[in-house]
Amino acid sequence: MPENSFAPPEGLPVAVGASGDAEARPPGVSVVVPVLNEERHLSEAVARILSQDYPGELEVVLALGPSKDRTDAVAAELAAADPRVRSVRNPTGRTPAGLNAAIGASHHPIVVRVDGHGLLAPDYIATAVALLEQTGAANVGGIMAAEGVTDFQKAVARAMTSVFGVGGARFHTGGQAGPADTVYLGVFRREVLESLGGYDESFLRAQDWELNHRLREAGHLVYFSPRLSVTYRPRPNLSALGRQYFHYGRWRRVVMRQHPGTASLRYLAAPTMVLGCLLGLLLAPLWPWALLAPLGYAAGVLVAAALTARGLAWRAALQLPAVYASMHWAWGIGFLTSPRLLGRPETVPVRRPA
User: Fold this and answer.
1) Is 35 within 8 Å of 65 (Cβ atoms)?
2) pTM for this one?
3) Is 115 within the bounds of a domain?
4) What is the pLDDT of residue 173?
């Protein structure tokens, strides 16, 4: 096989041209990375991108928000060291605006979204490009492989990969390959992104859910494969974890309001638990049996923590109940207190990539 031929993972086809012959080179790939306060992780994330086992052209566009650490300096060092890396400004610091700016400044027909703390598996891009060709999908994605460094992060990683912690979403817990409602991050066909106007910048969070819903509504396939894996570093403490899941819940309800077709019973579990526990505590002075709701939830957390703590160091295992409770309560409260977006959904501005 010629040196520059595309050799996809075993069992996946090479791209085929109009003549039926295998193309000499795979399509070029643009990796877009929204970055804010990622001094600790950015160098490793970019190194994983640049070392991908992919023979096609590759560029990395960093969308730099107003970071308070040395992120901009690290980005400048990376760009000086490798001409495939460059940056654009993202004055708002918001993820969807940064993604649109980076997409607009990129050139290749395949767009790979990566976060500033995400670490790609070595064959991630090659596998994703082959899957796009094989399935005809507009977006393919895989597993958010949470891995912790500290004991607390290890507890969070265990919770984020368990059904009790996050429900049965395949991009968290794994599962068979096939069509999906949404996937983690994503590898897209540029023409489809442009036809839909890119990410909706009114969604400060949950922009992936919202975009994947619009993809499916437009008749495109969103495809999940467990062969795609991105290592994710969890939040460093309970406060940061709570804020993260509070905003997850808040913006997931915004998506459900704007796109009723995305509603799911799984997303109602946490807010139902919060209401049930609060109601139980309020009614307990008049009806002691009402305490069964909060006590039952507490017992469930302890049992789930015991069942899912296998293999964790004892310091991490002891933090698992608090991690589960923080994720559930923050998500539920965020969902219940979620505000409505201003304006009608169809008038929410979306910046179209250049």
Assistant:
1) yes
2) 0.82
3) yes
4) 73
